[in-house]
Design a protein that fits this description.
By secondary structure, the protein is mainly beta. Helices cover about 0% and strands about 30% of the residues. The protein has one domain. The strands form 2 sheets. A 4-stranded antiparallel sheet has the order 2-6-3-5, with no helix packed on it. A two-stranded antiparallel ribbon has the order 1-4.
């Protein structure tokens, strides 16, 4: 993984409230601490990008939250 500015070149910001479009097969991801996963793209399946919520339903920021994505074809 490499640390880059957010969003990294070619990446688009995501809110964490929904997954990227379902027609994207996989995505390269950048997490909140600026790291970009360069090993393998992530599949577009599963739960929303945010995993932790407070008692009021607001997302709790975490260094591992996905903050930007780039389509991987």
């Amino acid at each position: 993984m490499a640390r880059r500015e957010i969003p990294a070149p070619g990446f688009q910001l995501v809110s964490g409230k929904r997954n990227p479009p379902k027609d994207w097969p996989k995505v390269w991801v950048q997490i909140r601490n600026g790291m970009v996963d360069e090993q393998a793209p992530w599949p577009i399946i599963g739960p929303r990008w945010k995993w932790a919520f407070d008692n009021e339903g607001k997302p709790i920021p975490h260094p591992g939250d996905v903050v930007a994505v780039k389509r991987a074809d």
